[in-house]
Design brief:
Elements lengths: L4 H15 L17 H4 L10 E4 L5 E6 L3 E7 L5 H16 L1 H4 L12 E6 H6 L2 H38 L3
Antiparallel strand pairs: 1-2, 2-3, 3-4
Helix pairs in contact: 1-6, 3-6
């Protein structure tokens, strides 16, 4: 683990632990409705101050909390065009399968690569610390996966170039 990754993940973990204190909160407008306040934003007093945790200018996490939900938006490291393309394709692949991940949103927030929405129902059905561990594990693994895919693409390109140049 890199020297800047550990404090970054520690900050994300402690912020998520604090933001996961969620309660059931019925809608103030419509009877018997319960929607994530972080999404509908009907009243300001139910929203917490959003927290942006940055590792560098491109890698960051936005944690938006409310009384009954938390939205976690993640921007993944993209150093060059290959990583940018791989990240975009990989995130699109993940978001198409959002129903399998339960807490994954189908569409990311503007300026971020992927978003999670955790409601009070999720924290009632699952352990809070396991949800936090899942998000952190996801953040660690996504970097590894994109790096491995980039190495595979570069190796394949090298092999193709060698085969092409053998003819000359």
């Amino acid at each position: 683990m890199s020297s800047t990754l550990r404090p970054y993940l520690t900050a994300v973990r402690s912020t998520l632990n604090a933001a996961m204190c969620l309660n059931n909160f019925s809608s103030q407008d419509v009877e018997r409705h319960n929607k994530p306040e972080v999404e509908v934003r009907t009243s300001k007093e139910l929203l917490l101050t959003p927290v942006l945790i940055s590792r560098n200018e491109r890698e960051k996490v936005l944690i938006e909390g409310s009384i009954n939900s938390v939205r976690i938006s993640i921007s993944v490291k993209q150093a060059d065009d290959i990583e940018r393309i791989l990240c975009k394709k990989f995130m699109r692949f993940m978001m198409m399968r959002a129903e399998n991940f339960i807490v994954l949103r189908r569409k990311a927030i503007e300026g971020f690569d992927i978003s999670f929405l955790i409601t009070n129902f999720h924290t009632e059905q699952m352990y809070k610390h396991k949800l936090v561990d899942f998000v952190l594990h996801f953040m660690e693994e996504i970097d590894k996966e994109i790096s491995e895919m980039k190495l595979a693409v570069n190796a394949r390109a090298r092999i193709c170039a060698e085969e092409f140049l053998k003819r000359f």
